[in-house]
Amino acid sequence: MLPVCDSIMQKELSWLSFNARVLQEAADPSVPLIERVRFLGIYSSNLDEFFKVRVAELKRQVIINKAQGNEDTVNLLRQVQNEANKYQRTLNRIYKQLLVELADHNIFLRDPDSITKAQTEWVHSYFRRHVLKHINPVIIGEDTDLVSFLKDEFTYLLVDMTNGDAVYHALIEIPTDKIPRFIRMPSEDNNVTFMFLDDIIRVGIDSIFKGLFTYEKIEAYSIKMNRDAEYDLVGDIDRSVLDNMSESLKQRLNAMPVRFSYDAQMPENMVNFMAKELKMSSIDSMMPGNRYHNFKDFLSFPSFGSDDMENRPLSEIKSYQFDSAMTPFEAIGKKDILLYYPYYSFDYFTEFLRHASYDPKVSSIKINIYRVASNSRVINSLIHAANNGKSVTVVVELKARFDEANNVKWASRLTNAGVKVLFGLPTLKIHSKLCLVTRHEESGIVRYAHIGTGNFNEKTAKIYTDFALFTANAKITKEVDDVFSFIEYPYTRPKFENLLVSPLNARDRINFMIDREIDFAKQGKKASINFKVNALVDIEIINKLYEASKAGVKIRGIVRGMCALKPGIKDLSDNIYITSIVDRFLEHPRVMLFNNGGNEELFISSADWMKRNLDLRIEVGTRIVDPDLIKRIKDILKLQQNDNRKARIIDADQKNVYVQAKEGDKQIRSQIDIHEYLVEVEEQIAKADQK
Known about the structure:
This protein is α/β, with parallel strands linked by helices and 691 residues long.
C-alpha cells in the first residue's frame, strides 16, 4: 500500500489538470472554431481566479511555514508555477494554430505590421475619434505606487521611451470596460478583419506622447497583474453588517500581487523594473506570455461566419407537468418535479416565485441567495411579494466570492423594501439552494420547496447543468423549514432524516452510507457507490473511499474539477474509476447513489466533497423519493458514465486521456444525448397523462 502522502494528489495541481481539460477543448478540432477560441477565454478566466484565490492562499502558507522553519509548501508552489507556465506555452501554441484556422475561414486578427496603408489610416482615425479620449497615461516616477495603481485583471501597455541615456516609463490602461477588445476594420474581398484594441493604441501611441516627451524610440509591451482576492472582514460593532462588508471589500483593491504576466519579448531590464515596482518576491509568479494578455476577453469573441463555426442551440425542453397546470402549485402538488438546467428554462422557477408574490393564499416566502443575475427577476419578485404583504425572508450570503459587492447591493435594496434580510452565520458561508413557499389551502397549510444544486441565477442557468427539485412532500418541506430556522437561530439543532445538511449531519451520513456499502461487500453482497461532484479533495472522504475499494465496493465517480483521490492504484483504489466531462456546458450537479443492498438511496446536493463544504458551510442535499425521478437521475448519470466523446479518465497521474469508444460501441456525447433523452421523457409524461 502507498504511504498516505503518495495516495493523495495535491489539490492545486489537480485544479491545473482540470483547467488543462478546458484547454483541450480549445485544441479539439471537433469543436466548432469560434467555440474553441472562446475556450481560451474560459481557460484564462479560470486561471485568473485560481491565482487570486488558491495560489494566494498557498503563498500565505509558504510565508507562515517559513516563519516556523518549515519550507514544505515552497516546493508545491514552485510546482504550481511551473505547471502554469507549461500550460501558458500550450495556450500560446493553440492560439497560433487557431489564428491559422480562422484565416482559412477568411477571418483575420491583424497586428500593426500586417495591415494595408488604407487600414492604417482607418486605425488612426478610429483611435482619434473613439479611443484617445479614454487614454490617461500614468508616468512612472520615484513616487508612483504601482501596487496601489494597477487594477486587478486589467491589461496595460508598459511604454518605454528612450532618448539617448534618458528613459521614461508610462502605463496605459487598455479601456476594455469602455471599448470592445476586438475592433472590426474595413477589409477587402469579403474578409472579416479584426484588430486588438491593444494594437489600435500601439498604432496611435505617438498621438499620446509626441510634444510632451522627446524620444528616439518608443516601445509598448503588454502586462497584467492579479491580486490576492482574500480580505479581512472588518468587525466594527458600531457599524452595520453591510457597512463592514463594503469597507472590507476595499482591502481587495490594494491587495498584494500574486502574479505578474508580461510579453515574453519585453526586455529583461523592463521585467526587472516592473518586478521591483510591484514588490514581487521570490515566491511570486512571474509569467512570460503572449503579445496579448487577458485572454478571458475571448469569452466574448464576436459571432460571425457560417453556423457550423458555433454550437448549434439545443431546443428548450418544456415541462409538461408545469405547462399543463393552472399554477406552479397545482403542478407540484400532484407530483414532485425535477428540472435539469439548461435543458429546461429557468423561467419555471422565476414563474414559481412570481406566482407566489401575489397569490392570496401564499403567506410567506423564504429563500437563500448566493449568486443572482445582475438584473434579477428573483429579487424583483421577492420585493413585489413584500409589497403585497407577504412575509419574505431572504438569507443573503455576503461572502460569496467575487459577488460580495453585488450581494451588498441586493441586501440593501431588499431591506429598503421591507424584506427580512438575514446574513447567516459569521463562521459559515451559506451555499445551499433553497426556497420555501408556505400556502394556506383548504386542506391546511402546505409548503412548497425548491432544493437545487445550482444558484438562483438566470444567467448561469443557461450554461451550467444543475438539478432542481420542486416538492410538496410534507416531510421534506418541514426539514427545509428547519434549515431556515437553524440559519436564524443557530443554537437550535434540528434532526434531519431526508436532508443532508452541512455542517450538522452531512459528513456523518455520507460516512455511514459508505460504511454500509463496506459491510455489504464484506458479506459478499453487491456493493456500489456512484457519485458526481465538482471537487473531491476531502481527505477523510477519500480515505473512506479507499477503505471501501479495498473491501470490494465498486466505485464509479465523475469529478469535473479537482480530484485529490488517485484511482486505479493496486490494493488501494483499483475498484475506483473516475472520469471528468468538459463540454459546451459547465457540469455542476452533485449526485450520490448508494446501492444499499438493492434498496438504493439517491441524493442531489449543493455540496462538493471538500472540507469547506462539509464542515464550514451550510449546504443542503435531499433524498430523492419519487421512483420516476430516481430512474431519471440514474439514466442521466449512466449517460454521463458512458460518455466516450467528452470524458477524460482521471488516473493517478491525471494525464487527461480521453475515454475511447470500443469498436462497434455507440458514440455517446452525454450533454447532447441527455437532451434527446429528456425530450423523450416529456413525451412519455404527456402521453401517460392523456390516456
